[in-house]
Design goal:
- This protein has 361 residues and is of the alpha/beta class.
- The chain has two domains: 10-230, L-asparaginase, N-terminal domain (Rossmann fold), CATH 3.40.50.1170; 238-350, Rossmann fold (3-Layer(aba) Sandwich).
- Helices cover 27% and strands 21% of the residues.
- The protein contains nine helices and 20 strands.
- The longest helix is centred in the first third of the chain and has 23 residues, at 2-24.
- It is globular.
- The N and C termini lie far apart (76 Å).
- This is L-asparaginase.
- InterPro entries: Asp/glu_Ase-like_sf, Asparaginase/glutaminase-like, Asparaginase/glutaminase_AS2, Asparaginase_C, L-asparaginase_C, L-asparaginase_I, L-asparaginase_N, L-asparaginase_N_sf.
- Residues 238-350 form the Asparaginase/glutaminase C-terminal domain.
């Protein structure tokens, strides 16, 4: 009789421990948008087809070893990353908004070609973010023998569910790829060939995985305002223009309907020193078009006045993009221009560090 009571108590304790463990497990929402990571080969046709993520635990049994509870939300129709645009960014942001208080972290599976754009756009749209939003993808499909998809997915889930004293370690939009965790709005894709496809040239790595999974807590972002809200405003009235030696301004789309010109210039901010250039830039500014100057160099920053051929930007009141990436500059401009949720002028907000995207003095 005594042994029976002891056995019942042991069983009750095990049930209690299991319930506590389940409560402690962090809940992560995996959002599958499309891309190579979600593909597998159809061996009958030899072509790639979307993978059914409802069967992901059968495909990657290692997921069962992670101390997180995984839920899956897929786009109705997977989108190639080259088709990603404002509508899809807004959809992802809305999904996170609807599920924000039901999950501890979010993992977005995305094609690699435009992942930096999506990460940058989300960083501006998700205000007061204090939970991890991690994006990852792969260079090879999940079903390939040599795929990088499994490691990227598994470690991304680790970072998306990483908490310390019930406080999320990552509280920003980040990209995890090939052993590196990077701030999303500081990244660029620099290789279509190597597994190590992303760089963050003007900001340190947030974390790195090896034998141990490390985090550099000194460089992590913390929200200035923890009141989470989503601002879906994005404008298409942004033009990106890269100058080149011998460029003729007659081919510039002068009559196009845009409000912001992201002008990618040489080095630390130089452009052709001729009357046609000055005349064109002054005409644009007289129309009320904002001109943001960024560099063609991967690292470093814009410095007006360093060379004589940059003085025109001071004269016309151009916006100094400093060390912001092209991807981040474009999406930041899309978010800021004509956005009724900001009460300060565009140029003042663009040069303000909103979510770690730009270095300021």
């Amino acid at each position: 009789m005594q042994e029976k009571k002891l056995l019942i108590c042991l069983k009750l304790n095990l049930v209690f421990i299991k319930e506590i463990y389940t409560v402690m497990k962090k809940k992560v929402l995996l959002i599958y948008t499309g891309g190579t990571i979600g593909m597998e080969k159809n061996y009958d046709t030899g072509s790639l087809q979307p993978f059914d993520f409802e069967n992901i635990f059968n495909k990657i049994p290692e997921l069962n070893l992670l101390e997180c509870e995984l839920s899956i939300k897929s786009f109705d129709t997977p989108v190639d990353s080259s088709d990603m645009a404002l509508k899809q960014w807004q959809l992802i942001a809305q999904i996170i908004n609807d599920a924000y208080y039901s999950f501890d972290g979010f993992l977005i599976l995305h094609g690699t070609d435009t992942m930096s754009y999506t990460a940058s756009a989300l960083s501006f749209m998700l205000k007061g973010l204090s939970k991890p939003v991690i994006l990852t993808g792969s260079q090879l499909p999940i079903g390939d023998l040599r795929t990088d998809a499994k490691e990227n997915l598994l470690t991304s889930l680790y970072y998306a569910s990483l908490y310390n004293d019930n406080e999320p370690v990552i509280q920003e939009v980040a990209i995890y790829f090939e052993y590196k965790l990077l701030r999303g709005n500081r990244t660029l894709k620099y290789s279509a060939e190597f597994f190590d496809a992303y760089q963050s040239p003007n900001y340190p790595i947030l974390g790195q995985s090896g034998v141990h999974l490390n985090i550099d807590r000194e460089v992590l972002l913390r929200p200035k305002d923890r009141r989470f809200q989503v601002d879906l405003h994005l404008s298409e009235k942004v033009l990106f223009w890269r100058i080149f030696p011998g460029m003729d301004w007659q081919f510039f789309p002068h009559n196009a309907d845009f409000k912001v010109l992201i002008l990618q210039v040489f080095g630390s901010g130089t452009i052709f020193n001729n009357e046609k250039t000055k005349q064109t830039l002054k005409q644009l500014r007289n129309k009320g078009i904002e001109i943001v100057v960024i560099s063609q160099c991967v690292s470093g920053e814009i410095a007006f006045g360093k060379y004589e051929n940059s003085n025109i930007f001071r004269e016309i009141g151009a916006v100094n993009g400093r060390d912001i990436t092209a991807e981040s500059a474009i999406t930041k401009a899309m978010h800021l221009i004509e956005n009724p949720n900001y009460d300060k002028p565009f140029r003042e907000m663009f040069t303000t560090d909103i979510c770690g995207e730009i270095s300021t003095d």
